[in-house]
Amino acid sequence: MAKPPATSGAEHADGDLAADLARALENDEFFLVYQPTIDLQTNAFAGVEALIRWRHPQRGVVSPLLFLNELEASGLIVPVGRWALGVACAQGATWHDRGYRFFVSVNVSSKQFESREFIDDVTDAISSSRFDPGLLVLEFSQASLVESEKLAVPRLKRLKALGVRLAVDDFEPGLSAVDALQEFDIDIVKLDREFIAGISSSPSAPTLVHDLVQLSKSRHLQIIASGIENADQRAKLQIEEVDIGQGYLFSVPHEAEEIDRFLEDFAIFSGKPL
């Protein structure tokens, strides 16, 4: 699940849609799509990020802009997040049974993270799917960790004890912000897509990326750039030795069957390992 984006009032679910949303999980209307990530230095396939989608029986596929905030506000994000985690781990195990070894990343909302069952949900998803926890990445928003710091630190330690990798999503570059992450024992920093969008036009952006990458490497953090849409952005991120890229330049999100075909084509045309 992607972090619910900021929306205007018009983008919130209307009354009928909200009522339908409350029944969507029971009616098996949610599904996951997966967006590939690519190693910017070697061009190897690095992994996928699982994103939730809703197929409404009358309206078709509903934009996440229209329902993610409603899921969060209503608390439905907790059971839906539990479902998404289980499905993503099961799909990841299926890919790995076929010989692929790449990470699967799953977003965690603040309410889901704060729920009493969260650690058990992660444990159950891993054990029931027999998915390698070392290839599971859980993504948290920077704000949710800071806002629930006292809760976050011990819970993240329990997740690390399971072998799971931890990422901060939508990270806004800042050297003090990197140091602040140390207490959370984060493995991955994911640069905000809006920052990436301005990397070609902002004179200060390359310097910020350079400083961030160097500091992050000294802290043993991996850097992922999201929202890469053109070759110029990719080239600048490569020069600064950003580790992994994600965005429409490489692929839009696909359902699992399409990812299977993507993997086959990628192996053929890139000549890179999966």
Poorly predicted ranges: 1-12
CATH topology: TIM Barrel
Distance between the termini: 24 Å
- Counting helices, strands and paired strands, the structural category is alpha/beta
Total DSSP E strands:
9
Q: What do the pLDDT scores average to?
A: 87
Query: Secondary-structure element order, as H and E?
Result: HEEEHHEHHEHHEHEHHEHEH
List the domain count as a whole number. Answer: 1
Helical segment count: 12
Q: Indicate the CATH class.
A: Alpha Beta
CATH superfamily, called what?
Answer: EAL domain
Shape: globular
Strand content: 15-25%
Cα radius of gyration in angstroms: 18 Å
Largest sheet: 8 strands, mixed, barrel
What strand line-up does the widest sheet have? 1-2-4-5-6-7-8-9
Give the CATH architecture.
Alpha-Beta Barrel
Helix content: 40-55%
Task: Summarize the SSE layout with pairings.
Layout: H1 15-24, E1 30-39, E2 45-56, E3 60-62, H2 68-74, H3 77-97, E4 103-107, H4 110-114, H5 118-129, E5 136-141, H6 142-147, H7 149-162, E6 165-171, H8 175-180, E7 188-191, H9 193-197, H10 205-218, E8 222-225, H11 231-239, E9 244-246, H12 256-270
Parallel strand pairs: 2-4, 4-5, 5-6, 6-7, 7-8, 8-9
Antiparallel strand pairs: 1-2, 1-9, 2-3
Helix pairs in contact: 3-5
